[in-house]
Amino acid sequence: MKPILQLKHVRKDIGKKTIIHDLSLDVFAGEVFGLLGPNGAGKTTTIRMIVGLMGITKF
Fold it and tell me: What are the record keywords, sorted (predicted)?
C-alpha cells in the first residue's frame, strides 16, 4: 500500500535556527494520526509545511 502523505528527511530552518530536523512521516488511507509534543516542538510548523503555508528548507 502506498502512503497518501509522505515526508522524508524534512528540515525547516528559520534564520540560523533549525526548527525541524530530519522529520519522516508516512500516512496511509484510512489512518487517523496526531502530532503530540510540548509547546515549541514544531507541531504547527509541521502542519503548515504539509498544507503549503510554509516552505520546507530541505528534503
Answer: ATP-binding, Nucleotide-binding, Transport
Residue entry with cell 497518501: 4
Q: How far is residue 8's CA from residue 6's CA, in Å, rounded to a whole number?
A: 7
User: Which amino acid is located at 34 in the chain?
Assistant: G
pTM for this prediction:
0.84
For 3-23, the pLDDT digits (tens) are 999 999 999 999 999 999 999
The Cα–Cα gap between 2 and 47 comes to 21
Q: Which three cell numbers stand for residue 16?
A: 540560523
The Cα–Cα gap between 58 and 9 comes to: 8
Q: Cβ distance 43 to 37 under 8 Å? A: yes
- Domain range summary for the chain, segments of one domain joined by +: 5-51
Dist CA 46 CA 50 (whole Å)? 6
